[in-house]
Amino acid sequence: MSLDDPRLVELSEAAQEESPERRRLLARSLAVAVAGAVGVSVAALFANAAVTTALADSIADVAILQTAASLENLAIAVYSNALTLAPSINGTDNPFVAKFLAMTLKQHADHLQAFNSAAQSLGGQPQTDLDHTMYSTVVTPALGSLKRPADVIDLVLMVEHITAQTYAKFAAAVGEVAALKPLASIAPVEAQHAAVLRAMQALLGGGAPQLITLPPDLTALPAAAGDVGFRQNSFYPTSGARSASEGTVASVPPRASGTTS
Amino acid sequence: MKDDLQISERELLAMTKSLEEMHSDLFPRVQHLLVGVCEVTAGQAARVAAVSRIEHSRRNFLRGGLVTAGAIGGGLALAGCGGSTTSNAPSPAIANGSDLKMARLAASLEVLAVNTYSSALNAARAGKPLEGLIPTALTQFATTARRQHQDHCDAWNAMLQSAGQVAQRDPDPKLNGSVQTALGRVRDAADVAKLVLTLENVALQTYTNAASVLSSTIAREQALTIAPVEAQHAAILNFVLGQYPVADTFVPVSLARIPSD
């Protein structure tokens, strides 16, 4: 069989029309076919169920990592927009709130880089767009009601809680260690963001914004401040996790007008 | 009949509180088990779907006639396919021997945490060395954290017992001695917070590291949904100590305990 063989040409053309992951699969098939021309047992190769499973793992894991990256892009967009609001709205006249929003934005940028690096290490493309499904259903409805710091905290808390749940669920589903490690080491960090935001939310709601400070005045903190950040669950829930497919590079639709990244 | 059911508002409130406590104690564990069962099924379905997509590609490939291409050299073909050598997909099966060793280690860390929080709370009681020195917010924190660690311990012990093993009732022997020594030196709230922060970080990092080595879906999910809760405990403790609550962008694993330690 030569490289001009119609079957190879057909296969190559098909690869151009497929999704990135499918293209990668077909490209590998093409490489194997060429190897076959010099005497490699293709049948033996494809009879190997373990290889098939590993490849499926890799493809599914790339999609999961891209969706995770799309959530980080969304978080970056939300925090960036929050930081552009007036201090009376985003609460940054409080030094701790200002530091928290800025530090958390930077941490999400680092998370984005980690997910994209992992996706690329598995042969996928980096995700540079945000999760538009979550943006339109979760973020957009809240944007119109950002009138005070508690509103901003409610919004970013929602984002953090969803991302923590999503990564915990994704980490349990992936097959590649390269995918598992960033998910497992980032999910708890998003949960920490959520815990701190819940405590801030409670102190704002209780009319005690002055207690949001480092170091805290422990004698003045109400008892409930001690556990409000985490008392809801002994096991972090995953029922609010996003779909693994909604942020893949292939499935992200063109940017809708009115959203920013 | 109506008279038989009459109760005072006070009694009703007491009964309601009692019911809430029962619910709070029992429901997380039941919910965790149910969610685990559902998500294992969903995770399996996703993986089966991914494998099915690959199998479909393989059939198309074979229909192209390329099965005739080669005869020998399976090793070269495998290299060309790039099947992952770092795949660590969780098995849906019940935890194996290695997972059970990790479950026992995890349970021993949880016993240590429960015991340490109990000792600290006892020391803060009337007539005890720390009476009046532990702020109410920290007492509330310790009470809830202890309950959650007990829930975690129960979950790991349930896994051990379902495999026919005895439950782990003793604290981690490697850490217990130094913790007891530290408890004897505790003089104020900061000392308590520093001690339990160390335990929370060890547990968090142990679970984060374990996620990469646990082979059963149930054990991995358990570690991945406990780790964020330990991380939240650590965030609040850092805040109590006047330290930035989310200092790590990624959870490190340098403090992680492993069964062979």
Automatic annotation (TrEMBL), chain A:
<feature type="region of interest" description="Disordered">
    <location>
        <begin position="238"/>
        <end position="261"/>
    </location>
</feature>
<dbReference type="InterPro" id="IPR009078">
    <property type="entry name" value="Ferritin-like_SF"/>
</dbReference>
<feature type="compositionally biased region" description="Polar residues">
    <location>
        <begin position="238"/>
        <end position="248"/>
    </location>
</feature>
<keyword id="KW-1133">Transmembrane helix</keyword>
<dbReference type="Pfam" id="PF13668">
    <property type="entry name" value="Ferritin_2"/>
</dbReference>
<keyword id="KW-0812">Transmembrane</keyword>
<feature type="transmembrane region" description="Helical">
    <location>
        <begin position="25"/>
        <end position="47"/>
    </location>
</feature>
<protein>
    <submittedName>
        <fullName>Ferritin-like domain-containing protein</fullName>
    </submittedName>
</protein>
<keyword id="KW-0472">Membrane</keyword>
<dbReference type="InterPro" id="IPR006311">
    <property type="entry name" value="TAT_signal"/>
</dbReference>
<dbReference type="InterPro" id="IPR012347">
    <property type="entry name" value="Ferritin-like"/>
</dbReference>
TrEMBL record, chain B:
<dbReference type="InterPro" id="IPR009078">
    <property type="entry name" value="Ferritin-like_SF"/>
</dbReference>
<dbReference type="InterPro" id="IPR012347">
    <property type="entry name" value="Ferritin-like"/>
</dbReference>
<dbReference type="Pfam" id="PF13668">
    <property type="entry name" value="Ferritin_2"/>
</dbReference>
<protein>
    <submittedName>
        <fullName>Ferritin-like domain-containing protein</fullName>
    </submittedName>
</protein>
